[in-house]
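Our consortium's second objective concerns turning raw sequence data into structural hypotheses that experimental partners can test. To show how far this objective has progressed, the report includes one record in full. It was chosen at random from the queue rather than selected for favorable results. The single chain below, 216 residues long, was entered without modification.
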Amino acid sequence: MIALSRGESATARRWWARAQTAADASGDSHLSAYIAGQHAYDGVYALYAPAQALALADGARAATNAPCAGRMHALGARARALALLGRRHDAAAAMSELERSFERLPRGVAREMVGGWSERRLHHAASFVGAFGGVGSKTAHDEGLRLSHGLWRSSTQIRLHQAAAEADPQYAVATLSALSPAQAGDHFIRRLALRAADACEARGAGVAELRDVLAA
């Protein structure tokens, strides 16, 4: 994940492969699902084309039917990838599955912690799918921001989702301009900002300033 943040894609792929091999060798289906699901989730943002991320997500989802953080990562990645592919009906169905699965999570897993999967993540997924798939309620952005207070990457991503959803490149420019140089260079942010620029442009908004900010 650190390699991905730095844009070192080849290094990230090698370490994901090693992590998955180790997880599968453990015989722990929850651990295998966690690594595969996190791989798919991060891949949507910073590593793979949507179709590749969808294939990873489907593989991770098949690792276990048990309610766990790994399966939730896989379902969230699947909904996002489907939204990016323009498969609106399927993205909506994937979000419904994600919401149902969240209700089944053990209380200890549904918390904000390492290895957990909290309500914040649910609204984050809804915010992404709403922005790039046109599915769900606009309030997902507001709920996501409320729950992401103090988490700079998460809150920045949701603001970029909102900029894409509302075809508001100036909001994206303001969002990126508020970051430190290190934060603005984070690959999870840059790749999403490029997608937001593309979405704004596709809806007829001028994105020259946003492209200039990203180029800088």
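The partners drew two points from this record. The chain has two domains: 2-147, 167-216. Residues 160 and 172 are 6 Å apart (CA to CA). Both points have been shared with the crystallography group to help prioritize constructs.
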